[in-house]
Write a structure and sequence with these properties.
The chain has 382 residues and is of the alpha+beta class.
């Protein structure tokens, strides 16, 4: 006699249903081991660091370039940190690149090139936090670990209609994710949850009819999918502004400097500029006094807009043409125009460079109305 399954029995099956779905619909990603193959811990670690607060699509090309240039953790450990920063340029959150290099050196020097297999050991590595440690332990070593990223938060919050707003809801979401996580195939389960959130349980218009967990989903039952996860109202993002100075020598070289190793955009290259502040005035006489070298500085039309995590930035750009004999101030260096694209310029500086390059030649060479006074910058040795 066939009996109907109880709700409790159905609730006990979500992991099996999800893994069956994953076996048929798993995404093919450059860092993901094919079915039946063992994952490469180095590939998993590299991809997980890159994927922190960054989309899969944005990471693919960077990952492939890194792996081609440094196919093993020992090779990455031996690379100069400047080379790592240059390869990372444009991917954002640049402390990740510095930690990536420091972690590679630690794994190579202290662990013989082998990553720790447990979460505690992984968390002791530079740049590896609770989520990343759990992901590596599960995916690379198939250890049972509770892996909760943004996609998993969304799936779990909808399944259980968790009413608490994020981030306060994180402990409750993690507890429910823990209850779902099976002892076997932990790595596949973690990746299945990520794939489900990325392809089916999407932020808007989720494809619930295709979801292997639809039967037990509270939000689907009540038609409230897009209300979860509940998010606290965001405060208005503050705005800052500043100026960049694009100095060009007659021999075609441009002035660059490297930011301090710690702090925002730490260790990345930039065009010299002013501090960024809420009350910056690009027309103030004090602005040009901060130029790195004396010159007939001209303000370009328009501005560069960039959004960081915690503030929005507006940059005004000034340009000046200088003689080939002009010496770089302390902390700066001259770089050939053709080599600029290969420097470790973060996205905001690449936007600034594109803004300069987009100006017609007559605009770049024409002083601003009223004329710009030569700045009182200092010439240094170098």
């Amino acid at each position: 006699m066939v009996t109907s399954r109880t709700p409790r029995a159905r609730r006990a099956e979500p992991a099996a249903a999800l893994l069956a779905w994953y076996d048929r619909h798993r995404r093919v990603l450059p860092w993901r081991a094919p079915p039946g193959a063992r994952a490469d811990p180095y590939a998993v670690w590299l991809s997980e660091i890159m994927l922190q607060q960054t989309t899969v699509q944005a990471v693919k090309a960077y990952y492939e370039r890194f792996l081609a240039r440094w196919p093993r953790v020992e090779a990455l450990a031996e690379a100069p940190v400047e080379a790592v920063m240059k390869e990372w340029a444009g991917l954002g959150y640049y402390s990740r690149a510095r930690n990536l290099h420091a972690c590679a050196r630690k794994v190579a020097a202290e662990f013989g090139g082998r990553f720790p297999q447990d979460e505690a050991g992984l968390r002791a590595l530079p740049g590896v936090g609770p989520y990343t440690a759990a992901a590596i332990a599960a995916i690379a070593f198939d250890r049972r670990a509770v892996v909760v990223d943004g996609n998993v938060e969304r799936v779990v919050a909808r399944l259980h209609e968790i009413p608490t707003p994020l981030p306060q809801a994180k402990p409750a979401i993690r507890a429910q994710a823990d209850a779902l996580t099976p002892a076997a195939r932990a790595g596949d389960f973690a990746q299945a949850m990520m794939d489900l959130g990325a392809t089916i349980c999407t932020p808007r218009k989720p494809a619930c009819a295709l979801c292997p967990l639809a039967e037990g989903c509270g939000a689907r039952a009540h038609g409230t999918q897009e209300l979860f996860p509940v998010k606290a109202a965001k405060a208005a993002r503050p705005r800052r502004a500043g100026a960049l100075f694009h100095a060009r020598r007659a021999d075609g070289k441009t002035l660059l400097r490297t930011r301090p190793p710690k702090g925002l955009l730490g260790g990345m290259d930039e065009f010299p500029g002013t501090p960024w502040s809420a009350d910056f005035d690009p027309g103030a006489e004090a602005t040009l006094a901060l130029a790195p070298l004396p010159g007939a500085w001209r303000r370009l039309p328009g501005a560069v807009e960039h959004v960081f995590t915690h503030f929005a930035l507006t940059l005004t750009i000034f340009v000046a043409d200088l003689p080939a004999r002009a010496r770089a101030p302390a902390g700066c260096r001259w770089v050939a125009e053709a080599a600029l694209d290969g420097e470790a310029l973060p996205s905001v500086m690449r936007k600034a460079l594109a803004h300069v390059r987009a100006q017609p030649a007559h605009v770049r060479a024409q002083p601003a109305k009223g004329g710009a006074q030569p700045a009182k910058g200092r010439a240094g040795a170098g």
